[in-house]
Amino acid sequence: MRFHLIDRIDSWQPHQRITARKVTSVHEDHWIQTAEGPELPFGLILEALCQAGTWLVMLSTEHTQRAALLTVREATSPGPVRPGDTLVMEAHVVSRTEEAAVLDGTVTCDDRTVLEASGIMCALIDAEQLDDPADTARMAAQLLGTKVAA
Taking the model in full, what pTM does it have? Predict the structure, then answer.
């Protein structure tokens, strides 16, 4: 079973930047209970940003490469995510080689920053090692709101 935290890709520029979103629901089962109510765990907010970065790599390479997380230099979460919030992930490439990419990014909800991360280092690997290229193309078309090429 795959764990997808991206519902839509709003915009992207090859090898430069991506903006994606995820609408949260009270019916998802990964909320943690706090005194203030349910919150999305920090790790899942970071994962959503990393998944946006992976989509940037896949779209930029016509689905031939995928990003595999190696390390994150720094990540902070200045605010909570609650059921019903829409996460907006924005990531941009700081540097890129044939073997790796480094991204920085933010996650916001209603213009309120809920995560900032820098130095997200990813290895660039052959996408076919992880997923069927046809499945990846179908998912990309769904996220972009386009039709899959025949």
Answer: 0.93
